[in-house]
Structure formats: structure tokens, C-alpha cells
Amino acid sequence: MRVGFKELFLNTKRRREIIDITEEVQKAITENDIENGICLIYSTHSTTAIIINEEESGLMEDILRKIDEDYPKNGIWLHNRIDDNADAHLAGAFIGPSIAIPVKDGRLCLGTWQNIFFLELDGPRIGRRVIIEVLGI
Amino acid sequence: MRVGFKELFLNTKRRREIIDITEEVQKAITENDIENGICLIYSTHSTTAIIINEEESGLMEDILRKIDEDYPKNGIWLHNRIDDNADAHLAGAFIGPSIAIPVKDGRLCLGTWQNIFFLELDGPRIGRRVIIEVLGI
Amino acid sequence: MRVGFKELFLNTKRRREIIDITEEVQKAITENDIENGICLIYSTHSTTAIIINEEESGLMEDILRKIDEDYPKNGIWLHNRIDDNADAHLAGAFIGPSIAIPVKDGRLCLGTWQNIFFLELDGPRIGRRVIIEVLGI
User: Fold this and answer.
1) Residue C113 in contact with partner chain A when CB distance is under 8 A
2) Which of C62, C100, C109 sits opposite A79 (nearest CB)?
3) Could you tell me the residue range of the domain that residue A99 belongs to?
4) Residue from A110, A105, A109, A108 nearest A137 by CA
5) Cα dihedral C58, C70, A90, A117 in deg (nearest 10)
6) Which of B66, B70, B105 would best serve as a mutation to test chain C binding (most C beta carbons within 10 A)?
């Protein structure tokens, strides 16, 4: 069994933003020469998240708007006494920082309409770190 | 270490529907003769999801109603200009396409009240593909 | 490859409660002497969940209040005819029972502001069982 790691450092430009990282994740599998196993995508921040969905520009806007609706910036939260971003922490906690995807024959087992998205919830930020781990044979 | 795969092809009959796949997942572990490891259940669609909860008929209806409430069909979304199912994409993105479960002594480590559910969010559809991956020793 | 397991048995004191289990999870990695691999944290109950976020007391209260708002106790659900806790099942189903975290150089790859939280959604309860699985080399 082999275990390989790759790190992405993403710069975000808006408060909320979606970045498609599918290609970088597939590269990590190829670079580590894993045939069959698991790929774990893990974001090391509590105001970001990882999701999988269709790469369609309208839908990507819809996803950001839905987050704004479900986690409004103007909520009254205790955490805002320390740092004015409780909404982003709540969204990050419930959407979640990681997703695991099967790897078969050297390829991510994504469906036709599935891409891997990094979600910035409290940008803009420099150097958001995402770990791509590949484990298999 | 061994890695095994099994595919399920599910036909759904309603727009939103829950299908209990627990037994099929356990079979995949037995068929691949994995003693200790991880089982990853992964749905290859962006308008479906995988969840774990109690297999009680009333609760299963409640889960579908809660999804209808949180992701109403009549929302005004950009994606609906292309395909009238943005609500299903949003639910799929936030609920998520996969769950990993520990495998010990050849069995899924499910609790007494835990079953594995495939969630159809935009049916009816033919041949929804779910990958069950088992990795271990 | 090695696979190791550790079980936590948690006693909860309130209906909804957050318990920080980060230290116990890191111990499981050290005890099993795993250098590089995956750590899977899995709660065996359908009215609990696992999340990752910042260990700040105000934010931890905010997380519990957000759950109360999104899954109110007084909802009218079919499952409440059997057991008066549908709200907790719904929260458990959508937040999810497990998270996988990369392990590198013997350490969980958590970010600076990330801790691992067990969420009680229907306490108080005795002996909530969480499985920590470590798989790697």
C-alpha cells in the first residue's frame, strides 16, 4: 500500500467563492501512481468547505446564494463578539471540510456531472490550504 | 491490503425517494472478504445523496418532507434556466454524495438504529449508480 | 498496512451538547503507531453527529442554537408518534455521523482552528459509542 499527499494553496478573491479543484485532485492521483484506493480531500480551515456538484455557472451562483440565505451574515451570534464571521463557521461546520472519493484504474470515480469544489465562506484570503491524500495500491 | 468494488444500479419511482441499501453494502464486504478496513459508499450523481439513519417508515417520510421544506421545488434559481432541478442539486451538494463506515471483523460498524440510505432527489430515474468500495485487510 | 480501532463511550448531560474529542482521536493514532494514513471518526447513533470547527465557547453555543433553529423540537413529524425525537434524527441524518481526516507523520492534519466535536442531539444519554479507526502505514 502507498500513501501520497499533495497540498493546494488557494487565494480567494471574494467573501464567498467556489473554486473548482477537480483537475488538481486527479493530478494528485496520477502523480502518486495509485491504481485503486481512496482519495480524501480535506480543507484545513473552519470557514471553508468541500462539496461535489455540477460545474455549471448558474448553479455555482445558486449554491453561494443558498449559503447566504441559510447562514446570513447579519445573524446575532456569540462568536461575533470575538471575530465577525460566525455565519462562515456555522456553514463550514455543517457543510463539512472533507469528502472521500473512490479511485479505480487510476481515475477518480466521479459521475458525468460531478466536479469537486472548494468553498470559501469568509474570504478574501491568501493561501487556503487543502490536503489531497491518496491511499491505495 | 485489498481493494474491492461493487456497483449498484438503482431505479427510482418518485421525485424524492429513500432506498435502504444496507444489505447490499454488507454483501460487498463479505464478497470481497475484507476483515478490517473502511467501506466507502459513493453516489455518482449530483442530484442524489447518501445518509445514515433509522429505518422507520414515519421517519423516512419525515426526512423527505424536511428536504422539500429546506429545498423547495419552486425556488427561483439560475440553474433552472438550463434544467428545472436546481433544488435537487442544492440538496445533493449540501447533504453530500458519500459516507465512510468502519469495517471490523467482516461487519459494517453500524449502530443498532443505523441503516444506509440512498436518497433520490430528482427522480424518477433509471440506473442510478452507487459505488461501494471496500479497502482493508 | 495496519488497521487499528479505539472506542469512546461518552456520557452526555444535556439534550444538546458538544464534546471536544480531538485529544482522544490523536491518542488513537499514537497508540496504533500509524505514520501516514486515514483516521475515520464514526458515531454509531442516529441522533448524534460529528463535526469539525473552532473550539471557542461562544461559537460552540452558536452551533447548538443554530441546530435548535434549523431542527426545532416542536416540529410535527410522523416519527414523533413512536419516539418524541424526530428533530434529533433529522439533524443527525443531515449533519452526518462521520468524518475522515488525513494522518501525516503520526499527526492528524487538522488546521490551527479545527477541533473534532461529538454532537449530542437527543441527550442526556449514557455510553454514546464513537469508533475511531486508524488505517495506514
Assistant:
1) yes
2) C62
3) 2-136
4) A105
5) 170
6) B66
Strands (E), C11-127: 17-20, 37-43, 48-53, 98-104, 107-108, 115-120
Which residues of C are less than 8 Å from B135 in CB distance? 135
User: pTM (2 decimals)?
Assistant: 0.98
Quick one: how many helices (H) and strands (E) in chain A?
A: 3, 8
- Number of folded domains that form chain C: 1
* DSSP count for chain B of H helices, then E strands: 3, 8
Task: List, for residues C41-64, the tens digit of each pLDDT value.
Answer: 999 999 999 999 999 999 999 999
Edge to edge, what strands does the sheet with B2-10 contain?
Answer: B2-10, B128-136, B37-43, B98-104, B107-108
Question: For residue A77, what is its C-alpha cell?
Answer: 451570534
**Given CB atoms, is B93 within the 8 Å cutoff of chain C?**
no
Share of chain C above pLDDT 90, in %: 99
Cβ neighbours of A1 in C, within 8 Å: 1, 137
Chain B residues touching residue C43 (CB < 8 angstroms)? 111
A-C interface: how many C-beta pairs under 8 angstroms? 90
Q: What is the CATH number of the domain that holds C48?
A: 2.60.120.460
Mean pLDDT on A97-124: 98
Q: For chain C, give the mean pLDDT.
A: 97
